[in-house]
Design the sequence.
């Protein structure tokens, strides 16, 4: 081998030996690897299988993963509002759905049998409301909330959000220890009212509710005004996360009058350390015209989502990315909501 050929061969060997293993000769990273390295993966904590929380969290997760390049959102089931609050606060989940009541009480260390403070959870948007219903038999002698003293009242399953809300409300009115709470689920309560095993039942869910429809189909029912008694007792001052509303006349068979009540608000929340740009883009996608239409197809309850209702029911700080989005869309954060 001549000296020139020897040197050429030696240089080729050295070049190959120094080249990074497995990379193209251009030195550029493969496109698939680049995409993988720039993908943000977030977890969304929803609710029980088949429940409204889970419909919303799954729908939002799918929409964001398909519509926003470089973002993958995985939906996970949970026990509901309180578990979501704790998961998002700890960073186990990035997004979640939590009732405004739990967000407020958790932030202030006032949850039942839990004095921990959950300050890492910031709200993004109002999703829908869960109004209180108090159902009695028409002609049964109960015409106002005060008439429930000594009566058997189904308040929802033990440990449920409905039962917790009922205890707050009736305690504020001085009635909780004077009536006979029965911890029954909605469907069983509707049947028990018809059989006169209870005198009233409480529902804390969107209207029209299937169990109230069930009761109205078999009995002449009334819905009691909950707002006036709550106002008189200072209930809304003590629990600012509850907002007053009206259940419209005709929502249920035989109830041909408006019913004044109140609701808790289901909120989309995030850990406060999620990038503001990520939150902004997520809200921009879901609250676009196409995004809102998609959410209504996922669950009709999403009809309450809009660019005008986005900050409804929120009495705790909102995420910086959310404040930017809602400000651009004409909504000003209240002092309770702003972190600035």
Sequence:
């Amino acid at each position: 081998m001549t000296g020139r050929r020897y040197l050429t061969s030696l240089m080729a060997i050295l070049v190959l030996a120094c080249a990074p293993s497995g990379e193209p000769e251009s030195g550029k990273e493969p496109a698939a690897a680049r995409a993988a390295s720039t993908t943000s993966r977030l977890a969304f904590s929803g609710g029980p299988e088949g429940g409204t929380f889970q419909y919303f969290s799954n729908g939002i997760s799918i929409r964001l993963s398909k519509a926003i390049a470089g973002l993958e959102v995985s939906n996970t089931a949970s026990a509901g509002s309180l578990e979501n609050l704790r998961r998002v606060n700890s960073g186990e989940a990035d997004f979640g759905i939590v009732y405004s009541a739990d967000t407020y009480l958790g932030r202030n260390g006032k949850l039942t049998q839990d004095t921990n403070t959950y300050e890492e959870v910031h709200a993004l948007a109002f999703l829908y409301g869960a109004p209180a219903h108090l159902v009695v038999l028409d002609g049964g002698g109960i015409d106002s909330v005060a008439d429930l003293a000594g009566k058997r009242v189904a308040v929802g399953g033990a440990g449920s959000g409905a039962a917790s809300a009922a205890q707050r409300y009736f305690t504020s009115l001085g009635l909780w220890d004077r009536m006979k709470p029965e911890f029954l689920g909605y469907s069983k309560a509707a049947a028990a009212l018809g059989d006169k095993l209870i005198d009233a039942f409480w529902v804390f869910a969107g209207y029209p509710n299937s169990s109230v429809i069930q009761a109205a189909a078999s009995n002449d029912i009334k819905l009691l005004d909950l707002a006036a008694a709550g106002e008189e007792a200072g209930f809304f001052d003590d629990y600012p996360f509850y907002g007053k509303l009206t259940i419209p006349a005709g929502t249920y068979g035989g109830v041909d009058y408006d019913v004044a009540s109140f609701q808790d608000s289901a909120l989309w929340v995030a850990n406060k350390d999620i990038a503001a740009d990520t939150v902004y883009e997520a809200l921009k996608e879901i609250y676009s015209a196409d995004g809102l239409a998609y959410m209504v197809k996922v669950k009709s309850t999403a009809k309450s989502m809009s660019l005008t209702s986005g900050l409804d029911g929120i009495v705790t700080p909102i995420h910086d990315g959310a404040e930017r989005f809602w400000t651009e869309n004409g909504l000003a954060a209240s002092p309770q909501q702003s972190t600035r």
